[in-house]
Write a structure and sequence with these properties.
2 domains; alpha/beta; binds (2R)-2,3-dihydroxypropanoic acid; 325 residues; 12 strands; 7-stranded parallel sheet; single chain
Length: 325
């Protein structure tokens, strides 16, 4: 008998097929997230779950999975999983690193260019039939090339954004809780700065930290107040890293020039004032949303489940301590 696996939302066909070869799959038939109650009802007998980053894997839900051996998140972020509870219950938790790094960095750069060059606003303008011809002062934005790019969180995605910035001839400064070796900094032309200094000097501040207790509201009124009036805030990490109300206030009062946001504090809700502002570019959490990458992510998640089925440690394990004797 094949082990039973729950897939909480439709994924690409090829990874699903691979999973079906080794497991009896229960797939959410609807194109929407399963509610926690629906997940709970589907959990009995399931050894694995291929979960979405939007599923809240609370201790209560994990405890309900009496036969659960793995929750394979179809995302690199894993703030939706109570990792302590998973570890206590000896449930492997996994994510999908690497395969979405460049795709998310591309989207970050699209936000940088989009907000500085007013792409979404200009598009709305043309579509509204407001364009009457070339004028010297129409949709004037700000240059990206040659400016200072401040990266908060120099992990995989932050580093990929740094490389793009260098391609645009930008000066790249970064802040991270772990500083690189100075020789590596020099080799990659990266300059470390304390957070406050980075906020003060950057023309674009871009966030690439995981959401943890420490990074919640890392950027609030005080931090926004340190930024240049001409600077832009970019967030393609997790919404709660920014105090959205403080951001609205900073944008409204002209403390900063604009924001490019892929993520929001209470997704899918967006603070209504943000929707009315022309100096924001807002996209619906699509950092990794390309055909190639979404398939690769699902493959990673499936491979993690298949490893557990084979009795192996999954390659993208987040809580390896569960395997310690
Ligand atoms: C991730 O992988 O964490 C993304 O935010 C979901 O696409």
């Amino acid at each position: 008998m094949k082990p039973k696996v729950l897939v909480t939302r439709k994924i690409y066909e090829r990874p699903l097929q691979l999973l079906r070869e080794k497991a009896e799959v229960t797939l959410n038939p609807e194109d929407r997230s399963m509610t926690p109650a629906e997940i709970m009802a589907a959990l009995p007998g399931k050894m694995g779950v291929l979960a979405m980053g939007s599923d809240p894997w609370t201790a209560q839900l994990l405890e309900a999975g009496k036969d659960l051996k793995i929750v394979a998140n179809n995302a690199v972020g894993f703030n939706n999983i109570d990792l302590n509870a998973a570890t206590r219950l000896k449930i492997a938790a996994t994510n999908t690193p690497d395969v979405l790094t460049d795709t998310t960095a591309d989207l970050t750069f699209a936000l940088i260019l989009g907000v500085a060059r007013r792409i979404a606003e200009a598009d709305r303008f043309v579509r509204a039939g407001k364009w009457t011809g070339w004028t010297p002062n129409l949709m004037i934005g700000r240059d990206v090339h040659g400016k200072t790019l401040g990266i908060i969180g120099l992990g995989r995605i932050g580093s990929a954004v740094a490389r793009r910035g260098q391609g645009f001839n930008m000066r790249v400064v970064y802040y991270d809780i772990r500083r690189l070796d100075p020789a590596v900094e020099q080799q990659h032309q990266l300059q470390f700065m304390p957070l406050r200094d980075l906020l003060e000097v950057s023309d674009f501040v871009t966030l690439h930290v995981p959401l943890t207790l420490e990074t919640k509201h890392l950027i609030g009124a005080e931090e926004l107040g340190l930024m240049k009036k001409t600077a832009y805030l970019i967030n393609a990490s997790r919404g709660p890293v920014v105090d959205e109300q403080a951001l609205v206030e900073a944008l409204r009062s002209g403390k900063i020039a604009g924001a490019g946001l892929d993520v929001f504090e209470a997704e899918p809700k967006v603070t209504p004032e943000l929707l009315r502002m022309e100096n924001t570019v807002l996209v619906p959490h699509i950092g990794s949303a390309t055909d190639e990458t979404r398939e690769a992510m699902a493959l990673r998640a499936v491979n993690n489940i298949l490893a557990v089925i084979r009795g192996e440690i999954p390659p993208n394990i987040l809580n390896p301590e569960i395997y310690q004797k």
